[in-house]
């Protein structure tokens, strides 16, 4: 049996002093703490004899995920160079992007983002679309499409995929329970954490799901 492992990494903390829901908006970068988180996760990957064999690094197109992926490569590529291997580069894929959200650019609970406003109440009535713009099923489906494609492209290998909390947990919940819908308050996807999913290449059956939080002590 040949197995492929996809290591889904959530991006680090974002610089967001106005506490806006940034969703897919451009211009939101990692904070100082976020960069330290990303490097901590990168060091964790680089120091692991299993993880530092990754053959590819993919990212959502947004700045915060690409910056996290670059920090990981900054830690990983020197290890590869010492083994005489070529540096890895970031490949972006739109299927890894953050969930669509109609509150983008607003501060939830204040001003235009206040939930008591009639126009906002209409957006939160359907709990199957907790991002108020894209359903859990849609989010999980696009991540699964990406995953199955990469399993075939990287048989027997490890890859790193940097994306966002909702895509990671919606997909994991689908794999573990058969449905992507879930309680957002019960997600276990910390900033810069790693959710590793190992698949049988031929059947795409999930063999294991593990979780690590290398940046948990960084605030």
TrEMBL record:
One of its GO terms (molecular function) is phosphatase activity. GO terms for cellular component: cytoplasm. InterPro entries: His_Pase_superF_clade-1, His_PPase_superfam, PGM_Phosphatase. Gene3D superfamilies: Phosphoglycerate mutase-like. This is Phosphoglycerate mutase. It comes from Bifidobacterium cuniculi.
């Amino acid at each position: 049996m040949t197995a492929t492992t996809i290591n889904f990494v959530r991006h680090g903390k974002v610089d967001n002093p106005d506490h806006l829901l940034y969703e897919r908006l451009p211009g939101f970068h990692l904070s100082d703490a976020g960069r330290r988180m990303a490097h901590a996760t990168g060091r964790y990957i680089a120091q692991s004899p299993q993880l530092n064999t990754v053959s590819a690094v993919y990212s959502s197109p947004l700045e915060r995920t690409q910056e996290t992926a670059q920090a990981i490569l900054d830690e990983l590529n020197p290890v590869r160079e010492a083994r005489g291997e070529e540096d890895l580069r970031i490949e972006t894929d739109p299927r890894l992007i953050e969930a669509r959200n109609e509150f983008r650019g607003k501060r939830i609970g204040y001003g235009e983002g206040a939930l008591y406003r009639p126009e906002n109440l209409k957006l939160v009535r359907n709990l199957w679309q907790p991002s108020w713009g894209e359903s859990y099923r849609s989010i999980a489906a696009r991540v699964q499409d990406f995953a199955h494609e990469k399993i075939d492209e990287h048989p027997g290998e490890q890859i790193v995929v940097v994306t966002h909390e909702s895509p990671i947990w919606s997909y994991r919940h689908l794999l573990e329970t058969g449905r992507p819908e879930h309680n957002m308050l019960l997600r276990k996807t910390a900033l810069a954490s790693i959710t590793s999913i190992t698949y049988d290449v031929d059947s795409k059956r999930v063999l294991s799901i593990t979780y690590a939080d290398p940046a948990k002590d960084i605030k």
